[in-house]
């Protein structure tokens, strides 16, 4: 994953899922695609284990880009649906990345 030199921002979304899909996978894929089209979006990583615990980290150029994504109409509706159907709990942390390091085995 290529990211610019810091500083940039990371939104860390840690969640625990409810049982069953109920359209979650399709909507999550759509949200990832839609986020990637937003001004200031840089990249995203996402993992979920068998117990339903997931972590998604999205990277953004600045706080204004994050705020615009948060108020995007489809994202707002998806967040509402997430609270109602897909998540038992979640945490969101927004942080400024000051330094970043990478290792890749040749």
From TrEMBL:
ABM domain location: 9-80
Source taxon at top rank: Bacteria
SUPFAM superfamilies associated with the record: Dimeric alpha+beta barrel
GO molecular function term, any single one: monooxygenase activity
EC number annotated for this UniProt entry: 1.14.-.-
EC category: oxidoreductase
UniProt-listed InterPro entries: ABM_dom, Dimeric_a/b-barrel, Jasmonate_Hydroxylase-like
Keywords: Monooxygenase, Oxidoreductase
PANTHER family linked to this entry: ABM DOMAIN-CONTAINING PROTEIN, BLL5343 PROTEIN
Protein name: Antibiotic biosynthesis monooxygenase family protein
Species this chain originates from: Amycolatopsis halotolerans
